[in-house]
From TrEMBL:
The keyword Transport applies. Keywords: Membrane, Mitochondrion, Repeat, Transmembrane, Transmembrane helix, Transport. Pfam families: Mito_carr (PF00153). It comes from Pomacea canaliculata (Golden apple snail). InterPro entries: MCP_dom_sf, MCP_transmembrane, TXTP-like. Residues 1-21, 40-66 are annotated as: Disordered. This is Citrate transport protein.
Length: 293
C-alpha cells in the first residue's frame, strides 16, 4: 500500500502518468518503498541533464583561464625584461667584446656599466629593450602554450608527467619558441646593441632598425643563428620546466591537486632559471656572435 501511494503521489505532483524508468528500493519502518531515481525525477520535472552543459561550461572556463594565464605571463615577462634588461645588455656587450681580432673595451661587467653610462647615459643600458618588449607576449604564448599542449598529450592516466617526458615537453616548447619568436627577437636585439658601439650608429628606432635589417639582409637577416638559438632555447626550457615541475611535484607529495603557494612557486622559478642559465650559457655565447654578423 505504501509503495503504490508513494508512486501515485509522485506522478500526481509532477502531472505525468509515465512510469519511472528505474526505482530504488528502500525500507521505511519495515515496509518497502519504491522511490524514483534522480534521472527519473529530472525527466519528469522537465529538467535538462546536467552533464553536457556542465562539461561545456567547464571547457569554456578552462579555455578562458588558459588565455588569461598566457596574457598574465606575457605581462609579467615584460616587467621582468624591464627590470633585468641592463644585465642582458651588459652580458651581450661582453660577449661581443671578446670576439677574436677585436680590441677589448671593457675590463668586466662593472666597467661595462660605467663606460656605457658615461658615453650614452643610463638610457644606454636599455638599448634594444623595445625589441624584447614587443616579443614578450608572443614568446610567452608560444612557450607556455606549447608546453601545456605537449604535457596534455604526454601525461599518464594518474595525471603525473614522467621525468623524461618533462624534459621532452620542455625541449619541444623551447624549440617552438626559438623558431616562432625568440630568434627574430634575439637577432634584432643583438644588432641594436652592437649598432650602439659602432662609430656611426644608423638605427633610429625599432621599426627603422627592423626595416633596415630586412632591406640589407632579407628575412634571413632576422633569422641569423637559428640553429644555436634552437639548441639554446630547447635546452633552456628543458632544464627550466624539468626543475620547476619536479620541485612542484615534490612539494605536493601525494596530493597532486594541492595548490602551490605563489611565493613558493616564485622560489622554484628562481632555482629553475638559475639552473637553465648554468646549463646553456656556452650555447648563448655562440648564438650572440653568429647573430651580429
Amino acid at each position: 500500500m505504501i509503495t503504490s501511494l508513494a508512486t501515485v503521489d509522485l506522478h500526481q505532483q509532477s502531472g505525468s502518468t509515465a512510469s519511472p524508468s528505474r526505482v530504488d528500493k528502500v525500507r521505511w519502518f519495515g515496509h518497502r518503498c519504491d522511490l524514483p531515481s534522480v534521472d527519473t525525477l529530472q525527466r519528469v520535472d522537465g529538467l535538462p541533464p546536467p552533464t553536457s552543459s556542465l562539461h561545456g561550461t567547464r571547457g569554456e572556463d578552462g579555455a578562458r583561464r588558459h588565455k588569461n594565464t598566457i596574457k598574465l605571463r606575457g605581462i609579467t615577462g615584460g616587467l621582468e625584461i624591464c627590470i633585468t634588461f641592463p644585465t642582458e645588455y651588459v652580458k651581450t656587450q661582453l660577449q661581443l667584446d671578446e670576439r677574436s681580432g677585436a680590441q677589448k673595451r671593457y675590463k668586466g661587467p662593472i666597467d661595462c656599466v660605467k663606460v656605457t653610462v658615461h658615453e650614452h647615459g643610463v638610457r644606454g643600458l636599455y638599448r634594444g629593450l623595445s625589441v624584447l618588449l614587443y616579443g614578450s607576449i608572443p614568446k610567452s604564448a608560444v612557450r607556455f602554450g606549447a608546453f601545456e599542449e605537449l604535457k596534455k598529450r604526454s601525461v599518464g592516466p594518474d595525471g603525473v608527467l614522467d621525468p623524461h617526458k618533462r624534459l621532452l615537453c620542455g625541449l619541444g616548447a623551447g624549440v617552438c619558441e626559438a623558431i616562432l619568436a625568440v630568434t627574430p627577437m634575439e637577432t634584432i636585439k643583438v644588432k641594436f646593441i652592437n649598432d650602439q658601439t659602432s662609430a656611426r650608429p644608423h638605427y633610429r628606432g625599432f621599426f627603422h632598425g627592423v626595416s633596415q635589417i630586412v632591406k640589407e639582409h632579407g628575412i634571413r637577416g632576422v633569422y641569423q643563428g637559428l640553429t644555436p638559438t634552437i639548441i639554446k632555447q630547447g635546452s633552456n626550457q628543458a632544464i627550466r620546466f624539468f626543475v620547476m615541475e619536479t620541485m612542484k611535484d615534490w612539494y605536493r607529495g601525494d596530493d597532486k591537486n594541492m595548490r602551490v603557494p605563489t611565493l613558493i612557486t616564485g622560489l622554484f622559478g628562481a632555482v629553475a632559471g638559475a639552473a637553465s642559465v648554468f646549463g646553456n650559457t656556452p650555447v648563448d655565447v655562440i648564438k650572440t656572435r653568429l647573430q651580429v654578423k
